[in-house]
Inverse folding.
């Protein structure tokens, strides 16, 4: 069964996470990674597992990624194992006001997971976030390894 990693990325950090995940999935079977702008629903043909990720921008996934997910027909992800991830600010270092609003409005992975479920996907892991030191990166040390460990704990695709 094939795995697709669908992601968006402005500064390249989420892309690094997406490619690290794709490397792990590729150990288990065919895997492709595609950026939101290049995605078309036909890419889901034969896909048994779909991982979707975005930078958190104003507490949400990017509009390009949201548009792709919302455009999927109802039930498009039926029978597909789904995972949701994001990259996000280093909140312990952020100003108090951002910490407050982040606590209130959260991060991109949850709304991604919600959309994947709405389209019929089966969420196989809790959504996960990976932390950048600053808006443009880099990822904190160890985050790529943590991303790989996150998907290692997912059930093998059927
Ligand atoms: C305009 C803008 C809005 C952002 N909003 C948030 C936010 O609401 N919460 C958060 O944790 N990080 C926020 N960030 C930090 C991004 O999450 C960070 O830039 C992103 O993880 C980098 O990923 P990328 O390199 O794939 O674009 C924001 C950054 C920018 C530039």
């Amino acid at each position: 069964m094939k795995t697709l990693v669908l992601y968006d990325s402005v500064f390249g950090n989420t892309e690094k996470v997406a490619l690290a995940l794709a490397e792990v999935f590729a150990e288990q079977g065919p895997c492709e990674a595609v950026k939101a702008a290049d995605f078309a629903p036909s890419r889901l043909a034969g896909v048994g597992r779909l991982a979707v990720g975005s930078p958190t921008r104003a507490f949400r996934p990017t509009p390009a990624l949201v548009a792709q997910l919302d455009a999927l027909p109802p039930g498009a992800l039926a029978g597909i194992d789904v995972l949701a991830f994001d990259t996000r600010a280093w909140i312990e270092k952020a100003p108090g006001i951002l910490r407050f609003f982040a606590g209130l409005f959260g991060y991109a992975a949850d709304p991604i997971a919600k959309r994947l479920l709405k389209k019929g996907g089966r969420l196989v892991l809790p959504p996960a976030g990976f932390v950048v030191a600053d808006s443009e990166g880099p990822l904190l040390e160890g985050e790529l390894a943590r991303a790989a460990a996150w998907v290692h704990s997912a059930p093998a695709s059927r």
In short: The chain is about 35% helix and 25% strand. The pocket of flavin mononucleotide is lined by residues 9-15, 55-59, 87-89, 102, 107, 132, 135, 137 (CB under 6 Å).
